[in-house]
Specification:
Layout lengths: L2 H6 L9 H38 L2
Length: about 55
């Protein structure tokens, strides 16, 4: 994992790959948080719709 070195010609982690790992980890963590929050919102919206349907019977 040395794409920072190849793309920008700098080595912030002196070639260890730690910086690239941190970037990859942050991207995966953000994607997981977004997915989790969206699933919570969808679940709540589904629950609200179901409760409205039941209350109109």
């Amino acid at each position: 994992m040395d794409f920072i070195e190849r793309w920008f010609g700098i080595s912030p982690d002196r070639g260890s790959g730690a910086f690239e790992f941190i970037i990859l980890f942050a991207i995966v963590a953000i994607a997981g948080i977004v997915w989790f929050r969206r699933s919570i919102v969808r679940g709540c919206l589904h629950l609200v719709a179901r409760l409205r349907h039941l209350s109109h019977r």
